[in-house]
Amino acid sequence: MTGRSKFGFEPLEPANVKPRKREVGPMGAAVREAAGSLAESTETLVEQRRQNASDAKAFRAAQGEGRVLEVLRVDDIRTDDLPRDRIDLTATAGSDEMEELKASIRARGQKEPIEVFRTATGFQLKKGWRRLTALKQLWQETGDAGFGMVTARVSEGPADRIDLYIDMVEENVIREDLSFAEMAQVAITAARDAGLDGQGADVLVGRIFASLHKMKRSYIRSFVFLLQELGDVLPYPKAISRNLGVEVARRLQSSPEATTALRKALASVTSPDQQTDVLSRAFAPPGDRGASGQGSKRRTSVKYELQVGAAKVTAQEGECRIVSKTDFASVDQDLLRMAIEAFQRVLREG
């Protein structure tokens, strides 16, 4: 066979067949590009929505846990739901330390947020009473609207009310900025809180101050007893040193009949020093008590502390320690000697 068809044509050789070149036209290219962009944008949109949902969930969790900072008006924050852990708020508001805090905020702004929790009626303060008070005072003194705003960490409030008391005192307890009388007063006030199911102050000491060493909790319980027995006739509870408060509480527990006489003696106290003197002499041996103002010698091993202006004074047998911001090393020696001689002269003259 020759391989010719009946029409006389020979079959084409495959090597001679050229493939047809097909190019995408302008319309096809546009359609393909549009389809690719749509697919890419759809994937991006899905990923963005997924990320937004994750971010929203994380934000809600942070908000519920009080990790979100908000800027609030100072007038929108109430402070009447929890008792403050300071006994004398008026004195604290007018103290030198408050003026120092105000000077810092005036110069550098608020550096640490306060903590508040939401209630049905608005915001209630949890932590940061001094910072909030400083801002309010600055706003009143300067009229600067910037001081009328406060940065706050907002939470929805813990499920257990006892956690509010723990959060309130935690910062000051860690800084050792609360006296034993103030810590005892927190427990006493919490015991009156209807939301705590009538738990006694002694029990609440163990819950509110659970992070403290058991010996410190024992000291606080001694002050709880002291304030419950003598609180209304103790005008300066913060001035009572740990050792003195614990000793007086121990003596009153063993000799409750002495409470009446001690209350009567405290009724005429007009200064922290007088209060310390009355408490120190209450259970001293008769021969050591002496009459006040007679210059008689009184032996006691009790240690106590008191605040004199910005200076903190610690007194015990054979030692009087003064801690203040004064650089005593820079004071002229003759001047310092004169001051100490005047101090000793006043002590001798009674």
TrEMBL record:
Superkingdom, natural source? Bacteria
Q: Name one Pfam family in it.
A: ParB_N
Q: By its UniProt entry, which InterPro entries does this protein fall under?
A: Chromosome_partition/occlusion (IPR050336), ParB/Sulfiredoxin_sf (IPR036086), ParB_N (IPR003115), RepB_N (IPR037972)
Q: Which CDD domains match?
A: RepB_like_N
- Could you tell me which residues belong to the region Disordered? 1-29, 280-300
Q: Which residues form the ParB-like N-terminal domain?
A: 74-141
Provide one Gene Ontology biological process annotation.
chromosome segregation
What is any one of the record's Gene Ontology cellular component terms?
chromosome
Q: State what protein this is by name.
A: Chromosome partitioning protein ParB
Q: State the organism named in the record.
A: Paracoccus gahaiensis
